[in-house]
Each structure stands twice: as C-alpha cells, then as structure tokens.
Recover the amino acids of this structure.
C-alpha cells in the first residue's frame, strides 16, 4: 500500500501524473455498482478466491445480472449458494451454469484439480444432515480441494465412525456436521490431529430448538481443535476448510 | 387400598369398629406436621424407600428435627443431600450421622449390602463432575446397589472410555454425568445395552450457560436408551438408578 | 470381546487361521453402507433390540432400501417411526408393513407376546397428547411389553387421575405425557413406586413455547423417580420403558 | 371527578371562588415531592388502600422520610416490604414500626380485624417457599383479611395436600406458592372453586432457571381459575387477594 | 366430604347399605369416560361453572360427542373455545349451537342475565387485540357478567384512555389486553381500584417475540393490583373475571 | 394547557360560557371513535405529524374507514405502512392512494419538498435489507426529508462503505439497517458525527434467530451515537430520523 | 477529506512538500498508542466531542495515563464514566478531576454553558433508576445541554407524570429511564412531540431478568418517536441526546 | 493402525509373541489413571501437541500430580490454563513452572522458536479483552508460533484498525477477540485473506448477556472466513491457530 502511494506521489512530483489523476487513483472504487448490489471485483486479488453469490432472497434476474458483471470483468469461476431448482433453471436460460440440487449450489466454470495440502473430510451425524454436507463438500471442491465424504456416522453407533479412523487420522481438515446433540464434533475432535470445523444443523425436533442444541454443544466441545460456524452454514465451512488447506509459508 | 377399606367397612358392619373410629381410620394423615415441614412417614411403604431430606436451605436445627421425627417413627435409614460440612458437624452434635464431604451427603444408618439386579455404573466426562457423581453413587449405594465409578472418561479422549467397554457392556444401569457439551451420554448410550440416566452438570463457562448446553445435548441424544434428570441432580439419578436396578416381576 | 479376540489370536498361533483372515475378523464392519445410510446389523446383538428407522426426512425409497438390507441380514422385526400415511402406502408397495396412523408408526413383523417384568402404563394430561402417547405405547408393545393406556387424566381434574390409583400403584414403569404445565409427571411420580418416564409435548400455546414449559417442569419435578426425554419423543419413552421392564439379574 | 369539577365551575360562576383558586384546585398535585421520591397521598382515596414502600434499594433515611410525609398527611397504616433487619432497626430509631423478619416486612399501625368476604389460604410447595408466603400472608392480614397458612404441601406427596381439601374448598381466595416445577397452582386450581393467585418462586437449581420453570408452568396451567404474579412477588399476591376478598356490589 | 362418608358408614352399621354398595359409593367416578376424553360432570357442583371444551385440536365429531354426553347428564350451558368456522358449521348439523366468529366461540344454551357484583371492563391496546378481547368478553357474559368493551386505548395515545377514566374507576374487574410493549396493564392498574387481569397477546413483530415482551411487561407491572394469564388466553381472563365478580360472603 | 383552562374559567366567570359548555370543553375527546379504532385527530397538533395507519392485520375496509375519517377532519397526508399489494388495490377503489410496493407503503397526498436541517442517509448491509430500508426512506421523505440511499455496504467489504465516507460525514441523521451480525451500525457510528438510528432486520438464518443477533449487536454498539428501534421497524426509524432532522431552537 | 488530500498533492507538485513528508501526512495516525489503549486524539474533530473513558475494568493508573495523553494533546474536557469512588480518589492524586458519586462520573474541565436547541428532560420510573439517570443527565450537561430532572414518575401513578405535562411538551429531547415493565417510554412517547431516548434499567427482580423485560417493552413501544439504548446505558443516552440537541442546518 | 495389528498378528504366528503379550499390546491403555484424572500420554503422538491442564476447579495438589505423571512419562512441555496466582505459587513449591498472570497461564518447559507457516495476529476490540487475548497469544507461542498483538482496535474507531492493515493482510491466521457487539471479527474477516478465529468475550453489560451478543454476532458474520470458539476461550483459539499455522502437505 505504502509503495503504491509513494509511486503516485513521485509521479505527481515528476509531473508524469496530474493532481486530478492522482486524486482519482488514490480514491478509485474497486467495485462496480449495480444499484441493488455492489459487485466486488478485487476480491479474488484481495482474498484469493472468487466472489460468491448468496442466492436466497435474490431473484433469478438479479443473480444473472451479478454473474454477467463478474464475467465481463474476467471472473470465470462463480459460485451461487442456496439456489433452488426453479431459479437455477431460469438462470440457465441466460448464462450457462452447472446446478447440483443435493447441495443447492450452482456454479459457472468448472471444478478445478485439487491443489491443497491434503484432503478435506466431510462427516455427518445422520442422513438428514447431507444437504448441508453437500454444500460444504462442493464448495471445498470448487475451491480446489479433494473431498472425502463420510455420512451417517453419528456417535450413537460409534463403530461406524471408528471403522473410518484412518480417514480421520489422515485428513488435512475435517468438517463435522450434526444436528440434535451435535456430539460428532467432539468425538472427531478427540480422534483427529487436524483442525475440525463444526457445523450445527437445524435437523431434529423438540429441544433441539432448530440447531441451538447442536450449536451450544459444539461451542462447548471439550476437544481442543474445534471451531464453529453458523447453523446450517455448509458454505462457510467449505470455504474455511479451503483456507486452511491452502496455507503456505508466509515471509 | 381397596382391601383395606373393605376391612374397615366390614368391621363397622360387624360392630367391631365404631363409626368414629372408621372415620379416623379412613382419614388418618400419614405424615407428621412439624410446622415448617410435613414429614412423610408412610413413604417407605408407599414407594419402597425412606424419606430423603434435601439439606440446602434448611438449618441444622430443622434437619435434626426432621431426623428425630423419622427415627421416632421407626425409620432407621435417613439420607440428607446437599449438606455442607458446617451443618453436618452441627447435626452430629445432636444425632449420629455419617458425613461424606465429596458427595455433600450425610446419612443415618449404614450402607446396606447390595441386592440389586446388577451393577450401577457412574461415569463422568471430567474431574469437575465428580461431586455430582459422588452424590449419585452414594445415593445408589445407600439404597442397596453395587456401584462402579468411571471418572474422567470424556469423549474428547475416546480411548479412555473404550478401555472400559466391558464395564459399560455389563452394567445394569449407567449414570452418565457431563457438563460442557454433554456428549458422554450419547456415546455411552450407543455402546450400552442398558438404560442410561444422563445428568447434565453446570461445569463449564461461556456458552455452557450453567448446564443448559449439556442439558439440551442430552435431551437430543440420538442414542435411544437415554433419559435425563435436572442439571447437577446427582441424587435424582442415583435414586432412579436404584428403582431400575430393583425391578421385580409384577403380577 | 476380550474372549473373542483371544480365540482369534489362538487360532493364528495354532495356524488354524491366517493372518489375513484374522485381520478381517478383527476389523469386520458390523454395518452395511448404503451410501446415504450405514445400516447397523449387529445392534440386535449389541443392544438387545432391532434397529429402528426414524422416518421423518427420509424418502419412501430410502426406507425401503434400509428395510431390505435389514431383512437380507435376517432382521424380521423392523420399526419405522414418524412415518406419514403417504410414505407408508408407498413403502407397502415394495415390502409388507403394518401401519398405525394414530401412532405414525409402521412395522415389519408382528407384535410379540408381552414378556416383561410387569405392565407399562402410558398416561396423558389431555386428548391432544394422544399421538405422542400412541407412539410410546406401540413402541413398548412392539418390544414385548403389556401396555395400559390412561388418557386425559390431567392434574386440573385430580379425581380423574386418582380414580386410577391402583393401575398407577401396580405398574412396572409409567410414561407420563403432558404439554402445557406438564404437572402430570410430578403428581404421578409422587403416587407411584416405579420409575416414571416424563415426555413433555409441544401441545399448548403462548407461554408453553412449544413444549419448553412442560420440559422445564418435568426436569424440576420435586418427585424423585422421574426422568425426562425430548419433547414429543414418544418412541424414546417407549424404548426406555422396555429397557426398564426387561431388566434381569446380571452376574 | 366529573362532579368535583362541576362544583368548582359553579363556584367560579357564583363568584364564591376566584379563577386563580379554581386553577389551583384543578391542578393541585395529589402527591408530595421529596426529591428522590414522589409520595402518593391520594392513593388511599383513589385505590382504597394505603401507599406501600418497596424497601429494597432504599436507605433507612429515605424510608423514614417517606413514612413521615405519609404520617403528616394523616396516613396511619404504612407497609414496608423487602426490608432487611438492619434497616428495620435503623428506622425504628426514628419512627415506631413493627418488624416481621420471616416476611421481611415492617409496618406502622396495627393489623386490623379481618373484614373480607372469606378466608385467604396461603399454600406453599416446600419449606423454602415460606419467606415469599409470609410476605403474602402478612400483606393480606395488614389489609384486613383472615389468612390460613398451609405450608409444604407440594404435589409430590399429594396426600399432604388432599388432607386439607376442606380448607381449599372453603377458601375465598387462594395464593399458591411454589418453585421448581410449580405444579401446585394447577392441582389446587383443579380442586378449588375460588380464584387462585399463583406465585412462582426462585427456589430450585439447574433447569429451574431462578423461577422461570415455575413461572411458565403456572402461566400454562390447564386449570381455569389461575392468574400469575411475578417470581417471588409475595406482596403482589397478598394485595391482589385482598382486592378480590373485598369485592362489593357496585352500582 | 366428611359428612358424606359418615352417612355411608352409618348406613353400613345400620345394615341399610351393604359393604359392596358402600365400597362403590366411596369410590364412584364422578366423570364419564368417552375413551378419548373424560367428561367431568361434577364440575358444575365442584367449581360452580359448567365444563368448557377447548376446541383447538379436536375434531367436530369429538366435540359433538362431548356436548352430547354433557347434555345427557343435564348440562344445558356448554362453552366451546378456539372453535373455527368450519368446525362450528359441522357441529351445528348435529347439535344446535350459537357461533360467534369474532370470539372464535360456540355455545349451547343462552347468555344469562348478568348477576355479578359489578361490571367487567375489557380494554385493548389496539384493534389487533380484539379477537382475544372478544373471547374474554363473551366468556364473561356467558357466565353471567355485564361487560363493557373499551377497544384501541393503547398508552401511546393516553387521552383515548383517560377519556374513559370513569368506566375504569367504576368497574368491578378489568381485563387489560395488549401485545407489543403491554404497558396498558400498568397504566390501568394505576388508575383503577379493582383487580386487573392482564392478558398479553402475540400481536406485534420483531422483538415482541410472539407475546413474550408483553408477558414480561405485565408480570413486572409496578402497579400492585395486576395478575397475568397466558399469552392470548382470553378465555382464562374472562373465567377469572367471573370468579372475582361472583365472590360472596363465606362463613 | 394552563392558559386554555384559564380562558375557560374566565368565560364561566364572565357568564359567556355555561357550566355545561365548560365541562364539555374541559373533557372534549380529541379523537373519533369508529368502534374498531379510535382515530386520533389532534395528533398533528400534538406531535407535529399526521396519524399513521399500521396496515398489517387490518382489512382494506377498515383502512378505508380510517382514511375517510381523517380526510373528513381535514387531514390530507396519510401514511399506511405494512400494506400488501392486494389491499392497496382494494383501497384504491375507494380512495386515491399512491402505492410503493418496494416499501410496502401507501399514502394519500404527495411527497413534500424537503425542509429538514440536512440529509437523511439510509444505509443497508445487504440487498435483502432493502425492503426495510425503503420503508424507512419513504417514511422520511413523506415527512419532508431529503434521503440518500446507500445499499449493500456491509462491513465484510469495508471498501464499499469507505468509498462513501463523505456522504456519511455530511449526513444529518443516518439510518443503519442490517441483519445477521448487525455490525454496520457500529462501524458507521464510529465514522459519523451525527446520530445513528440502527434497525436490526430479520434477514439471515440459523443463529441470527430472526433478528435477535443483529438487535443485540446494535444495542451493544461500542460507538456512542447509536440508538436502536425494533427489528424490521423501517417506519419507526424514518419517523425518528425526521424528528431529529426537524429540531428547532426551543425557548 | 478530499480537499485536504488535494492540497497535499498540490504541494508535492509544487515542490513545497517532499514525497516523504506527504507520505507521512497521508498516513499519520490520529491516535497515540499507550500499549494497553489507543487514545483517539482526532475524535473531537471527527465527531465534534471529546473522547470518553469507560472507567469500568480500568485501573486508576491506566485512567491517569489516558487522561495525561489527552491533555498533552490539548484536550481539556475529559469524561470518565462508571468510575467508583476509590478509583476517583486515586486519580485525583495525579490529575485534578471533579467526581460526582451519584452519577459515577468523574471529569476534567468544567461544565460548559448550555448552548443546545432546547432542554433535555431526564425522567425515571422510580427512585432506583436515579443512578442511571444521573449518568445521563451529567453527560448531557457536560456536553453543553440544559437538563431538567423528573424522577419517580412511573406510570402506575399517572398523575405524577401528567402533573409535568408541560415540561414534557416543551422539551427538545427526552430521556425516559425505567426498569421493570419499562412502560414509561411509551407513555411519554405518546405525550411528547420530540425524540424520546429510552433507557431500560436492570432495576427489578424475578421476571424482569435484569432489564430484559424493560428492554423488550421499549423496543416494542407503540409510540413512534422512541429509540432505545443498552440496559443501564445512561451515558449513551446523554450523548445521543446531546447530538440531537445540537443539530444544525447542514448544506 | 492396520499395519500395527498385522505386525502383532505375524509375531503371534511366528511365535515371537505370546497370545497374552499380543492381547496386552492390542488393548494397552495409552493413559495413566490417577484416580481423579486419566492422564493422556499418547496425545503428543496422536495429535502432535502436549496435554494441556485446565486449571479451573482443580487443586494445586491435583495439578502437581498430573504434571509429575506427565514428566515421568517424558513430557517436558506442559501448559496449565485458567490458573490463578495463588495456585501457581503453591505449584511452584513442588515443580518449577513459569507463570504469566496477564494470561492466567503457567507452563513447564520453555517457549520454543516459532516454526509455523507465518504469523498469528491477535487483535482485540478493547482493553478489557486483553486477558483473553493473552491466553490466546501465549498458547500460540507455547506451541511454536510467532504472535503479533494488536489491542484496542475496535470498529468504533476504524482508523485504529485500518492503520494496521498491512499486519492484517500479511498474517497467516488471525484471532479476533471482542465483547459487546463483536463486530471486529466481521470487519477483519472482510479485510484479511487468511482464516479468522473469532473469540467472543463476556466483556460488556446489559444486553451483552455475558458474551451472548458477541457470540451471535460472530456466528452470523457476513465475512466468509470466520469460525468461532466458546466465549472467553482464548486457549481454544490459540490452539486452533497453531493447528492452522502448522499445516503441512499430506500424502
């Protein structure tokens, strides 16, 4: 930042840049304003990952508009989460997207070759947690991670989980997804030697209070390497897993 | 009940009992009124277990009064829970009691020989849960149960728990005690083939909200044979375990 | 477990089993992986009761798949809870099941002769609690228990409850089901000499907060022999009652 | 009110009152301003009962100041609630008051002869609820009601309550006070034919959440004649009972 | 009660009643069992008011069944609350009922002449509270009370309320109904000299949390003569008002 | 007020007004009673702003009735909030209104020229907050304020917000609208030198608990000039902004 | 901002400023880093008000350090909130401050002459709310506002409030402070024509849940001109009132 | 695991290991049982990090016992969290430990040279969050990470945070610690391109509800790379940061 400003100043001193140009340069807005949304075009540079569109509550037209702005600015890879089938089909009439109903995700571009440090393991307590898991898994794959799926391994039948101890031990990051009592995160956290991202789900009834029970459980995990994202936030977990799995040596 | 009333009626018909005597008999109060407390003397008959004194919030004098009333009515075995050291010593000056500080329990009489169907296993997630566990264990012992203690076997270090798989498999009833995320109940519930009584504890901080997290976890257990008592209610769990462990064939 | 492993080891030593065979034997997975679910086939051995399918959130096809896997592995008795009428009819086209709409339960096999220690009493506070009660009652019957139903005996009309004092006194286990203020569990708990399993229901409005009021009441019961399961969890209560009612002498 | 204003207006018209006097009369403040408190002197007229001083959080000096202002304005009967022993003794040095520690109440004047429609019954679930009960009972007595105390009759030992069925049936108003599961209000509400005022108490631990459990129970009572006041609000219940017990025919 | 038993005993002694007859007499069930509901026929005697049918969650057939049982036992006046239009029309095909949609109430029999001590004032904060208010008002009328309606007098426009000060001052009981901040109860409580029954409603949005805000407000009312019933419980308030308005001198 | 009463009194003294006329004058009701609603006609005088109709839960007929009463009393400017399209069209058949679907607002009269102290800035965290924002913006415009809209400037992309620093610095009042974590209010509060009105929205999922998360965030803002209105209360914010933006020197 | 940067750039172009100087000027940190705190020295410029020190949780030494840094940078007026007596006395040994125990506030400098648009009215529901009120009042005075105090005017005795209707009508801003049911804000909001800042207090017991009840009430106020700050946040209210009372015409 | 078992089996087959030895080997308990605690000695192997002792609720004697067992098993590096000064001094009499009061941490061994991928940035919103921050920072340092501290950079004074943009951009992992509204995590999450670990603190008052407000904010962060640990859980954050900062290429 410092260097960039210095260069601008030097150009002004040298006369190779006018004051007006410099002013503009120092204040330039790194996003495009669509009126209803401000598309962030520098994000890929700033955060190393393309912009994501949260589909819930947006019309198909709005989503198409955002995608086009991105593509016109050179962004090939676009992820749309919480996208229902109907919207996906409407969007497809305007721009080519791939849609995966089990993950409620649409995307432009293609799933890249995995290039992370290791594998991302996505585990669920039950079968009802699978939609959240697929959102997490596909997000991680979209950002270049190899993903292993391990579904329906809840702690009430521990042998199902222990049968996969080796996958757990060898993973680079683990996403543990569970509703109801959410104990999966603690048990996996105690077995694994890598960071565990816990995702509470709203699966359950009665005193599960739509995910509150699982959320509190996971926050109180007595295993040390566990951090938590919002209830049902599969995307957030997949994104975070990608960040961890792409850590590199920094000066 | 039916039979008892019939006998009274027959005696009235036969003239062997006056109407006044019968009235008295039908209405007799099976408890003694101490003013501040109504001591339940028929409970042993009605529920098969002696009255218990909840010590918290009662003065040593009040407790002594209740014990004496019980003893005068033939009750030898008396249990006093939530009893602090100071009160215990004050009480001991008036009536002989045994005091166990680790369980915050005092009692008159002696621990009987176990005569239950099997063993009661008392397990805790951590060392801080031990006071609640001791309250449960001693209560169960006081009612005639053999108790096995298995402390600090929380799910974050699963091997500690699995090393005791045989004790778990062979127990008649299990009391699973844990604070924080309370996952112990689910994991044990999945391993055991006997009823599990889950006791959430107020151990923890932050989002444990004084036991709420563990309570919700245990209520939402995906393992089937798990029922829950109040936060920190070691006595309730021990008492309930005793009930289960003393089931007999009923006509 | 210990003994089984010893035998394997002795066979290896004796040469009657190859290392590969032993490895397989020690690691064999006691469940079958259907992709979306891991069917637990050893549970009957491990916990003395057949696997149960939680029907909510599963498609008819998934349920049929799980049933078939179970049946191919010799499991005759299968219980499906939270099953709506439509799914039941779809399933029936593929596998023969009996469906009981009042309990939202389907099952393969037949209701066995009761062989428990005594009777399971299922009581409700009001008529709106009956669906939860039927789930509990049918579950208990399916596992071999004689069940007595006692509906609409809420504490606001105490004489309705007291008229059945003898059934209460003679039960082996009682399931007390109530919404709103949930006082039924405490009152029955004070009358009975057997374990009471309390089931809060989401029946009510306003400050019942979908069962929270009844849940808290039951957890705070001043009667000692009361344990609680999740809101509306009729199955859990029936299953737990069965466990208690089938206790046997253990070495 | 209407009449009073009419008279003022007529006096102005007649010249028997100047405009200034009338203005004053119409605007006169029916309270005295002590700076830290505005003492309400017309309340006795307006509401048929003397002002009450809520002692908690007021210094002895402030309380003395308020009492004196009241007495100078002719108020003989003054009630001070939530008054601790120390403050009571300090106050007594300045103005003569009677102090009842078990109710944490002080008062000037004397307990009047009861003149209500009938008796106020004050019942508690346990012995720990007695301080709240005494606050209610003494308040009712101070306002001229005959009070019957019925303590430690919680629903877990129903026979203790039923032994007093006649007192319950013959009361004019009942105050039902309980912590923990708060079921007492519902059971009494079902037995009695008079209004029941339910007072949840903060007695209990764990999931009683300082009275929340009892509060919700009482609000959800399935018995119809039950209304609820704040947790531990013995005064409010006694005051409300007095209001009901002193209803008279109104034109 | 005492007297009744004495007579039975004397008859047995005299031989005018056999032991079997006496047994029956002492244990007779004062309700009729319809299987799905236990109709309480002695309630009118016991509590001075006919049984009420809570319509929500009951089918038209069930309600007809209960009404018929009541009528066959001589009960002419029957109230059905929370009854929707469709059910009301279905019921009307079998038994003649009057239906008032604005109160969601149906009833058999007729509104009696008022015979209470005075008038019941029903006030609401806004127009959206009217359905709850009508439930309260009609209930009170059905039990023989004169009712004054005072709607849309919320505290944000205090002059609307103060314009009716005389009705407030002269009422015998007041039912104050409000959602959102629920301040109406406190303001009326400060103006009136009679008991106020506060009914929080679920009217509002956002932080009203479906009536929780109004409920807490009303429980914390700084005015003394205020007691609270459940959120939206218009019936409970009307019933309680009737009880207060029909107090009589008791021995 | 004082002066007005004095004049009435003087007129009575002078004989230029009868006692009856004076009585009427002193008690005249400044609102009209429509039965279901009490229309407040003096509000414009009292509070400097026309009455607003909260459309939710009112029928089109009721709304038309209220509008007509207002218009007959000279009120030209009427605002109807929370008005859906269907009702708006029904109303339009009877009285001419302008309807703005994006704000769910209808109004009679026209948007006046802005005459406030400065500009009202309306900012949102995301695009889903826009309906609430439009309700706030249009309300402010309707009351005579110039409004600047700044949408989708959530704190996760700080540069989008900072690019508009000048608009923030130069605003007279700012309305900060956000769901989820609600951090927008604090960040703007730290940048601006004018009062910030924070509006939490129910936008989000999981642990946003329908706006609770944003509400708590905003209440706990560490920036000093932030006050909060109810969840989704765009109208309240616009109205409050107008009040601030029209402050004038007061004697 | 824009202008300032332009000037720097022009100076660089003109050679009157070196690149290094310009860099420094553009990046200068407008705060001083004390290690444990970053003292904000430009705030007065940025927000038109001096920095405030939140005293709770800071040692006297830390506070002295912050004050000195401020004073060395020319800041004469410093406000320290939540300051207990002991700390105040310790601080006074190092720097001269005025301490007001009733407001728990200390300050350097002097209370300025009021120069706001009008008066700030500070009203409380009870005497226990006075500490919060004094914090608000003194804060407003410190920022140059005339303050009127109106204490103990809770809605349960409405005449106490109405007696001050003229002060309410003539205020420029009102701070309404109340615990328990918090109705004061709504009632004042309905009477006043100026913005009302509502401050819930933690005064109360039981279901007041430490201010939650008052907080929810105030957020749900049916009066339009009410915004809310955090529980017990007297400072925030005083600061916000100052902002409103010092609005000026903006270009 | 597989390989290890194979080797044991081959040894048994070869006769180089007896069945008893093999049994022992397969079942060996990788922890030592101290009665009150089961010390985990293989954790360093299993999870790549030494055991940590949670000091709260343990006596100095218990802690000394656990340390000694660890040291006897070759563990040099031991971390004790939540350790108060008094206990630390008692422990130091038995075993040499370093104590850091600002972090409430004691440790055996020494802080190693940092060997992570990059730097761990620890940022706090205010000065009161520093104890939690120090716990996080020291934990990270103890596990071999370079830590940068950035305290008191809350979002209400954004320039304080933005002045450190380069440290934020260049960090490998960031721990964002804040109480009250917890917005720091979102703002940093939007600026950084590395994983952010959010730690809500219990700092604040009123509606912060002991950290609940910050917790919900952080879970709802609209920035994508944010995961959350328990309230005040500085250790958990430091441990998790270490895990991320030590990721390596995995096969």
């Amino acid at each position: 930042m410092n260097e960039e400003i210095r260069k601008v100043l030097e150009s002004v001193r040298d006369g190779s840049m006018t004051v007006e140009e410099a002013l503009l340069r120092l204040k330039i807005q790194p996003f495009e304003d669509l009126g209803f949304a401000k598309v962030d075009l520098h994000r890929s540079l700033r955060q190393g990952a393309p912009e994501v569109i949260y589909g819930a509550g947006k019309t198909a037209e709005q989503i198409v508009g955002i995608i086009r702005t991105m593509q016109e600015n050179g962004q090939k890879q676009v992820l749309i989460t919480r996208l229902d089938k109907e919207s996906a089909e409407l969007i497809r009439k305007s721009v080519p997207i791939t849609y995966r109903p089990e993950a409620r995700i649409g995307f432009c571009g293609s799933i890249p070759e995995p290039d992370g440090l290791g594998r991302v393991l996505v585990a669920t307590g039950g079968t009802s947690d699978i939609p959240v898991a697929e959102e997490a898994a596909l997000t991680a794959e979209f950002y270049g991670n190899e993903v292993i799926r391990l579904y329906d391994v809840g702690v009430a039948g521990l042998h199902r989980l222990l049968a996969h101890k080796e996958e757990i031990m060898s993973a680079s990051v683990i996403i543990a997804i569970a509703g109801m009592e959410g104990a999966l995160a603690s048990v996996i956290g105690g077995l694994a030697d890598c960071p565990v991202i816990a995702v509470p789900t709203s699966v359950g009834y009665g005193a599960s209070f739509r995910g509150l029970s699982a959320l509190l459980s996971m926050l109180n995990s007595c295993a040390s390497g566990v951090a938590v994202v919002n209830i049902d936030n599969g995307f957030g977990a997949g994104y975070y897993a990608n960040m961890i799995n792409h850590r590199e040596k920094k000066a």
About this structure: Residues 31-108 of chain F form one domain. Chain F has two domains: 31-108, 119-250. DSSP finds eleven helices and eleven strands in chain F. The first helix of chain F runs from residue 2 to 14.
